[in-house]
């Protein structure tokens, strides 16, 4: 993968990747090129993903080889500088006609100085210091929510996103004057048995006709998110859910049930309910059992870009 510094990046749709420490950001990034290849096969799309700096290019290539070749999770990147990746693609347009369109956008991982989860919620973070830069021109958010994560920390982290996007004043004014950004909420780690089993038992899961690979279809993903927040775990994430719908327009939020690595599949690439856990411990280290088959990794991103681009006058309003 080549590292380039692209010109004109500021003119393209800007999307930030956000989520508390451990929610799965680095793993999601590493799965993106793999998901892009899947997308190429399934939708005749064609994607080129480039790091906009050497460091960003390195994070991407190393992530992919860790996930796909070494079958381990990418190393901790919680102390990284602001990184961004440029996406250029040719995809088949939605609808019955066979047309292709070129698309391009930038995905950014904001400065995460230690993602200081030990810091007091009130203490200023470096993220807040960069408010002005971070807000400027960002139109979309990929927000990763780990249902098994620490709900309090996740809520704090979501508030930081609101502050970063809107500046302190706007965050406080919110209420009815919500932030204009489009959001894809990705509920991560769907493959984990401690998440998948209860979801299946509660009737959320359906299976793909051909492969049998489990999914929670788009229209149910939002209800599933609410179900998770209502106390799927001992600590409820209701505050987090309320924060999301208070500060963002509910009709600009889409929900996806995501797994960066997918389920363990059998030799026929099918799903087996008796043996689907895709992470095993080998010498005490987690190892991914079968080649990753990401679930809902590209979709939240390409559909977010599509929603932003087709929103009537959205760009004009933001720029104006
Ligand atoms: N089973 C499973 N575990 C995941 C997945 N994504 C992340 N993880 C786990 O969550 C940990 C933290 O993920 P990471 O991407 O480093 O989170 P970050 O701190 O937001 O960058 C990883 O080391 C994995 O153990 C996934 O799709 N499936
Ligand atoms: Mg990370």
Question: How would you sum up this structure, described in words?
Answer:
- The chain is an alpha/beta fold and 320 residues long.
- It has a single domain, classed as P-loop containing nucleotide triphosphate hydrolases (Rossmann fold, 3-Layer(aba) Sandwich).
- The protein contains ten helices and 13 strands.
- The strands form four sheets. A seven-stranded mixed beta sheet has the order 2-4-5-1-7-8-11.
- A hairpin with a 2-residue loop joins strand 12 and strand 13.
- Helix 1 packs across helix 2.
- It starts with 12 loop residues before the first strand and ends with a helix.
- Residues 1-5, 114-135 and 314-320 have low confidence and may be disordered.
- The structure holds guanosine-5'-diphosphate (GDP) and magnesium ion.
- Magnesium ion (MG) binds at residues 25-26, 77-78.
